[in-house]
Each structure stands twice: as structure tokens, then as C-alpha cells.
Amino acid sequence: MAQTLRWGCAALAALLLAGPVAAQPAGAVAAPAERATRHALVIGIGTYTDPAVPALKGVVHDLVSARRMAAAMGVPEANITVVRDEAATAERIRQEIDALGRRVNDGDRVFVYYSGHGTRWFDEAVKAEGCTEGLLATDGRVLSNVELGQRLAPLAARADKMLVFYDACFSGGVAGEPFRTRSFVRSASTPAGEQVTPKFTRVGAPEACAQPSNFRTRSLAQGLQPAQPVAQNVVHIAASRPDEVSFDSSSFGGYATVHWRDCLLGQARDLDGSGAITVDEVTRCAQARITPSLAGQPGILGQQMTIAGNANFVPAWMGAAFAPTAAPAAVNTAPARVASPAEILAEVHGQRDGSRRVVATVRQPLMKIGRDTLDLDVTPSRDGYLYVALAGSDGQSLYLLYPNALATDNRVQAGRRVSLPGTGGWEIVAAGPPGPETLLVMVSDAPRDLRGLAQAPAGPFMQTLLDGQGRARLQAVLGNGTPLAGCGQPGRPSCSDAFGAALLKVETLR
């Protein structure tokens, strides 16, 4: 006899009528162990051969911060390459980017960090008053946005995710004397003797390109975008807007770097209650700290961090991933928002590798409650492991439908269609209430360790518990693979965390 799950509120009622169901304890889910599939290139330039270029005394702190950020992303120490100061010539930077490209395999993750001066110069290709951005190497040579885009493109093409963070700026727009190191006005939060320097040099830049708000710019992020084969897989974080200044502190380094680091390592909050901390949430946290730290300083109008690309990428599972949902500002305010099961699945879907296509269709998208069964056809573009999760129309329940107790072998092959439920002796009948159901269909390179989920049995299926820890564990387990012994070797599963996914909607009707 086929095992049936009637999903929605009816499924929850059936579980309650059957008596108490003990939730299976979730396995410990901490920051992922170091992964050989993760890599970082850290570039920091505080001193330049040209004495006209101001020194950045805080870069030494940025290098430490960047290494901590890389570690939080699961990058092993052996996979972190650091190029600093006099060693960071334009040619050396090119060589290190190329070397990184040779190390990165399909489905790996990459973190590229730069702290130093940015610059801008006139470019006829950008039309009238057009200016092009670039990063200044220690020898005074510039790596333009176009060149950087071309050199990073091969990495982006192979990486599951590539995060590029540049703490530099591309205009000198500080009122009065914009290019001079200055002391900050003393306050309770200002370290004694702190020196602050704009991370922009006007050396070689015409006045039109050195001033804010009077140019048409071809930005670094824009230069990188056209070369990206899959925008879903790349995120760029800039310390400031194109027409703003970013600042270097001699006491702690770049304002953007230190605050983004602290937010990544635990200060950021899960603003939407989804169970994960995204790049957008980390950056919002950092911005909330940058703004007051610069407030009240003469001639400084602020510094706004910007994101291009996949702002919903979850970069790390250290500290912040299991931080509590954002607390209300005051006792009488409404409680913090908690994401619905459908929104949680949508956020997991946002972590997919866009180059890994999963074609999934529901044979009957309009389903009669109590009568129609859910039937899926899935065709992956790569070999992997198939998982199907369902968010019910009640807005509260979330089930892992596949694999299940009656169908444990979830391996699939590239180009070969899989039909579910197939002949496994199980089926799923719509139970209501009426409304939309959301299905996440994902095919991962490496298997997921489902023991890490907070869960309760629902017949042969698994109901995921969605308290704060349950949401976090769901995101962590689905988003991170479980590398097996010998992974990456011929005939063995991949070591990567990459997965392809499709998000489907089904409507249940009376």
C-alpha cells in the first residue's frame, strides 16, 4: 500500500491525533570545517613607491581582518594568499590572480579582497566627461576595471560563488582639502592619535575625474559584470559609492573592512528571520556602524557601502548564522519578523549555482484537495544528489519529501529524467488549506547530512522544525555539502558545496 502524506494543516492535525511525536535532536551545526574547495586572495597596499601617494597606515589591520573573514568563510590557512605593500606590484597582482585561477576547480568558492588606493582617469570610451576606475598597485601602475574583469572572469566561470571586496574609493570628494591625512575630532569613540586618510589618490587623475558628482563613470563593479557568465554566482562589495570617499584609520584599518568583519563574525542579525545571514544583512549591519563613526567630522559627508551581484548570498556560517533574529527596538514594538517556509526555500534557492541547471516541472500545477497527487519530473544538467522540499499552504509547515524512508537512494545522472514518486510505494495527496504551495527542487554536487536538521517524522517523510535554530540548521544543511572520504577523486562524489535548483509553485483548490 502506498504511503501518503496529505500536506498542509491536515498533515499537522494527523500528527497530533496520532499522539506526541518526539523531534529528533539535531546534530551540532557549527561553522563548516575548513574546505579545500575554498580559496582567498588578499591584497593590501599601505605604502607606495611614489611619495606623492599618501600612505595608508591602517592597511596592516585590514590584512588581519581579511584573513579572519576568509577563515569565517571556511578557507583553510594554506589556501589564503596574501600580497602586501612593496610586493604588490601590478605584475605580481596579475600573476597571483592567474595562479588563483589555476587552483580553483569547478564548484569551488573564492574570496578576493583588496585594500589600498583607488583612482580614476579620463577614458574616451566612456563618452564625454567619462572616467574609468582602477586599483593602484604599489609601483604606481593601475589595474583597470576592464582588466580586472577579464582576469577574474575565468574564476567566476568555474566558481560556485566568488565574493570580491574592495576597500578603496574612486573619487577624492572630501570638502576643503580632500587628499590630506587628517586627525579626527576627538570623541568617546575616537582612539587617541587616530589618523584618517581617504583611500583615493589623484596622482595622474584629471580634476574632472577626481571630484564627485561631476562625471559619468564606468565603475569597477560595472567593469566586472559584463565578463561574468552567471551573475548569480558573483557578489561585489564596495566600501563606498563611486562618487564618495572611503576612509582608512591608522588605529583599526578601513572603516568598511572592520565593521563588515565584525558583522560577519557575529554582530549581524537575521533581519528577515530566515535562519541565515546574507551579504545584504552583513552590509546593512556594517553601514549602521560606519555612519555614526563618521558623523560630525568636518567636511566628511559619509560613506555608503554598495553591493552588486547576488546580495542574498550567505557567505559564512560562523557566529552570525546562528545569531538570534533581530530584536525589537522597544518593548511596545511589534515582534521581529519571521520568514515563512516559502520565503526560507526562496532564500536557499538564491544560493544556487546558476551554471548548474535543474529543469523541474509539476505535471498538475492545480490540485484538488483530497484527490490529486503531486507528480514531479526532474532533469539535472549534472550528476548529483536530488532533494525536494515543500512549504505548505498553511504558511507554517515545511517537509523534506525526497529522499525519504521509502526512497533513500537520491543519486541522479546528468540529462536523465527522474519522475517522482515513481515506483517507491509513496505518494503525496493535497490536503489543504487552499492556496499556494512552494517546492524547492535541488541537485547538489555532494550529499547533504540531513542528521543536522531539527526534525520530526511525518510518515516516511521528514517535517522540519522551524524555530530559530531549526531555520538556521535547514539553511546550513541544504547550503553546505558533506564531503565524503576520497571526494573529488575519479569515480567519487564532488567535494564542492555547489548545487543547482528550481523553485516551483503548486495551487491547491477545493
TrEMBL record:
Residues 370-446 form the DUF4384 domain. One of its GO terms (biological process) is proteolysis. PROSITE patterns: EF_HAND_1. Pfam families: DUF4384 (PF14326), Peptidase_C14 (PF00656). One of its GO terms (molecular function) is cysteine-type endopeptidase activity. Residues 1-23 form the signal peptide. One of its GO terms (cellular component) is cytoplasm. Residues 37-258 form the Peptidase C14 caspase domain. Keywords: Signal. This is DUF4384 domain-containing protein. It comes from Rubrivivax rivuli.
